[in-house]
Predict the structure.
Amino acid sequence: MKILSAKFIKSATAPEHYPDEALPEIAFAGKSNVGKSSLINALVNKRGLAQTSSTPGRTRLINFFTVNDELSLVDLPGYGYARAPEKIRNQWGPMIEKYLLQRKALRLVIVILDVRREISQEDLSLFEWLQFHQIPYSPVLTKIDKVSKNDLSSQKKNIRSCLGLIDPILAFSAVKGTGKDQIWKAILKATKMNQTET
Ligand code: GDP
């Protein structure tokens, strides 16, 4: 995908503050500190667009971005940060669920998983919930620069059998830039945008 522009539009917590649904939308979800911001920044070739932070659990808002004024990317707040205050933890689920259920422009949820970690209970609950509501999703294993090829392929197998998937699992490294094209392909397929643009 040729990136001509990538812009932050706004942050919101409630549907009345979401931007208009003029563009097809792709949402990014994952545990705090999984590498979600790094992945979004790498996709749009813009360091610092999505916040990257060494303090997990800081981003508690839904952040909306546009790419080339033709696609909307949404950074959902990271889940599962045990040290976040309980009040904030309790707000996360309903905020994310509301967005995922109500957003008509939503085409795909990219769920980011750390290749080095076992799939967590929170990840599994999210996948089950997405399956139940028939919301299209795609798991992406990140930080693959940290593991061997063998470990990567056995982790891919694990995730596929865990989720009952037949499609290949996407893999990514923000450090090496590996896997970016495949993620763009999945995005363009989900949005039915012209794949010759990649
Ligand atoms: P977020 O909280 O999910 O948005 O995670 P960040 O993008 O802020 O990344 C959390 C930490 O993981 C940071 O220290 C990043 O530098 C690191 N990180 C993110 N992606 C990768 C990757 O692909 N490989 C490696 N080795 N580190 C990564």
